Amino acid sequence: MKRTSEAAFETAIENVLLAQGYEKHDSRSFDRERAIFPEVALDFIRSTQAKTWDKLEALHGDKTGERVLEALCKWMDSHDSLATLRHGFKCFGKTLRIAFFRPAHGHNPDLEARYQANRLGLTRQLHFSPKNDKFAGSEFGQPQAGPKGERQGRRSQQSLDVTLSVNGVPVATLELKNPLSGQTLANAIHQYRNDRDPREKIFEFKKRSLVHFAVDTEEVHMATVLDFVNDPEEVREAFRQYYEGSVMGEEVDPDRLYEVKAELDESGIYLQQEVDAFAAIFFAPKKRQSPSDPKNMNALLDRAVVRFQDLQEKEEEFEVVGGASL
User: For the sheet containing 220-223, what is the strand order?
Assistant: First the structure.
């Protein structure tokens, strides 16, 4: 499809969003490896949290920006991007925020000013992949000519029609199609399924973008997970118990859930590689399941049980010793 057939559609969306306060971010300023607009993120943190930035700068000097970016991206990879947008992230003992939500009331001008400082970004034709194009090089390491004579081996020229971001963090992607050109929503969905690698950082579930839209002038479809490996019915069945059988108890402070998770992580009862190994077995598609799976999962759980029992024994010994000393 000719690019001009989508360009007008992109322009129409762009004009509406810019009129509502969005700003344009150039695709060239996007860090493909980290999947973030680094300067936008750093500018936001510097301008809204100057005191904390100054304290970090006193420790790290001209490396402060790099240290903050490392901490931010690592936190999003381990705690997910939505939680990071809502609750912030830790950087060398300091809490930094990468977004401020609307205050419950307007009585605090500082909170209102921080909320107004949020930068909503729009990028057209975002080149997102750090990978090289297919046929990246010959056996001698030199770029090859593509089918139309283009020099291959450069960084991937795959691009997303429109990407929306909050303070430099991509949160939504859009693939646009114009039925007048002969392509519709179905072609946009096909593009996500066949031309978008869900292992790319920008597409990894919960680590960066939160939602993906397939759009034409008549319809919009969305997905939060680009998962084209597992059978949809198997996924639906696996989650059925939660949306059919769960009962809400008393209201729980969502911040407390993150605190509990942090406490569990610090306890050392389980290791992240064990959690990953257990999840890989438990969530394996039916065709990859094995009769030995239960045994292997139990073996992983047994390690955590042993550590928990050891921890309990040490705590009991501490209490006995402490009681005797009193």
Answer: 23-24, 120-127, 159-166, 169-176, 211-215, 220-223
Lookup result for tokens 């696996």: 238
Segment 199-224, tens digit of pLDDT: 899 999 889 999 999 999 999 999 88
**Selection from 268, 263, 250, 261 nearest residue 310 by Cα:** 268
Residue type present at position 274: E
Cα 298 to Cα 111, 253, 273, 289: the distances in Å are 49, 32, 15, 15
pLDDT for the residue 37: 98
Q: Which of 103, 91, 115, 104 is nearest to 42 (CA)?
A: 91
- Pairing assessment for the beta strands 159-166 and 120-127 based on DSSP bridges: antiparallel
Alpha-carbon distances of 20 from 16, 23, 28, 138, rounded to whole Å: 7, 9, 24, 48
